[in-house]
Amino acid sequence: MTSSRWDRRIQRAEELADACPAASEILRFYSAIARVQKTVYEGLKASRQQLAAASALLPHVPPLLSLVKRIGPAPLARMADELDRDPGGWPDLLADQDLPAEKEFFARTLLQPHFEYQAGQRDIALGSMQSTCPFCGEKPVAGVLRGEGEGGKRSLICSLCATEWDFRRLLCPHCGEESEHRLPVYTAEQFPHVRVEACDSCQTYIKSVDLTKNGLAVPIVDELATVSLNLWAEEHGYTKLQRNLLGM
Ligand SMILES: [Zn+2]
Ligand SMILES: [Zn+2]
Question: Are β-strands 204-210 and 239-240 bridged in parallel, bridged antiparallel, or unpaired?
Fold first, then answer.
């Protein structure tokens, strides 16, 4: 696990920002945020601590707040302003479990590289086929398809630590439904490599990125770029299994 993962995300976000006008604002904002995350990750790596504490993230709060105040969407910029006036609340921000959506963005921006770094220090059972992350227990934000045809493999990517673990192709990661006719798959012409994988038993969906159709895709970023698929799925009565960093 190297910082080139961050560089690939940043580069892909910039490419897609040019290619997908509908999502370009989101992607440019994400690429700036991913640069902050890369700095956090590299700081943790340089400190060579086996298990860095969340308190190591506090020095990154002020630059994150000033960035979001400058270029963030209005609700996040307002929250950045509020947080800036209350430095005493920052440790809680990084420790609390149930934060409102606008605060959660700031917490997760800093906690993602922290957990991604921690996950890289451990041996994780990636073949466990469980529906939540085998390292941190969080839900998956996206799926990844590799290999051709029905025998192709699906894996899931953790929304917090970005660990990718194996998962069955025909199985709902929310309710365990496994009959094919209750697990419809939808694609849009615009994004042939991204599928909405829905479940008619629990009405949730997750998007999977098919790397056999587009080897340049970076799943976390392509998931963000296809926000129009979320809107489509939600109009059709499905709820996303796990929201991404930007709350979508
Ligand atoms: Zn995880
Ligand atoms: Zn289900």
Answer: parallel
Give the tens place of pLDDT for each residue, 198-231. 999 999 999 999 999 999 999 999 999 999 999 9
* CB of 159 closer than 8 Å to CB of 138: yes
What residues does the ion ligand 1 have nearby, CB within 5 Å?
Answer: 133, 135-136, 138, 158, 160-161, 163
Distance CA 204, CA 177 (A): 11
How far is the CA of 223 from the CAs of 98, 174, 194, 230, 243, in angstroms? Answer: 24, 18, 8, 9, 10
Scanning the structure block, which residue is given the tokens 């921690």? Answer: 118
For residue 238, give the ligand nearest its CA.
Answer: 2
For residue 160, the CA-to-ligand 1 centroid distance in Å is 5
- SS3 of residue 158 by DSSP: strand
- Ligand of minimum distance to the alpha carbon of 177: 2
Q: How far apart are the first and last CA of the chain?
A: 26
| Cα–Cα nearest to 119, from 156, 165, 161 | 161
Q: Give the span between the Cα atoms of 127 and 124, in whole angstroms.
A: 9
C-alpha to C-alpha distance for 193 and 189, rounded to whole angstroms: 9
Q: Please tell me whether the overall predicted TM-score, pTM, comes out greater than 0.85 for this model.
A: yes
Alpha-carbon span 105 to 108, nearest angstrom: 5
Q: Do 37 and 112 meet the contact criterion of CB atoms below 8 Å apart?
A: yes
Ligand 1 centroid distance, CA of 163 (Å): 5
Q: How far is the C-alpha of 230 from the C-alpha of 239, rounded, in Å?
A: 9
Q: Are 116 and 164 in contact (CB under 8 A)?
A: no
Structure tokens at 93: 């921000």
- Cβ–Cβ under 8 Å, residues 177 and 186: no
